[in-house]
TrEMBL record:
Residues 122-141 are annotated as: Disordered. InterPro entries: PI_transfer, PI_transfer_N, START-like_dom_sf. This is Phosphatidylinositol transfer protein N-terminal domain-containing protein. PANTHER family: PHOSPHATIDYLINOSITOL TRANSFER PROTEIN, VIBRATOR, ISOFORM B. Residues 15-102 form the Phosphatidylinositol transfer protein N-terminal domain. Residues 123-132 have a biased composition (Basic and acidic residues). It comes from the Eukaryota. GO terms for molecular function: phospholipid transporter activity.
Amino acid sequence: MPTTDYWSYAVGNGNFDFSAFKSEKTGRGPLLEGWQENCSPVMTAYKLVTIKAPYWGFGGKLEQALLAGERALFLESHRNCFGWIDEWYGMTVEQLSELEEQGDCLLNQKISKPLLLTDTEDHESKFTDNSKTHLQQGVKT
């Protein structure tokens, strides 16, 4: 189903075909027409987003636009989470935290944002010897 709203375009639409996807590790999928009515158990996720733009005349429209962006990001993140289930299913909390930290480092490198490291141990624990580009961006306090 093609989308025409800006945020779906900006956030992106995953290239997963969930009607053909089946997880090897969990056996979940494919997601065929009407899967929501036949799914058990169901997980529900809530996210509270508060946006206040106290600008007379366009504050309400700005708030609605930002909320639409948050919704698009939230939906796409959950789609990706399901599409990548075989990559993370079965990991421990520690492994997931490490994976999240690696993703943060890659994102910071991509947007050229320096990392804030608190001490030498922190600096050495985050990077291996083959990550010279990350080391150059490390900032000690």
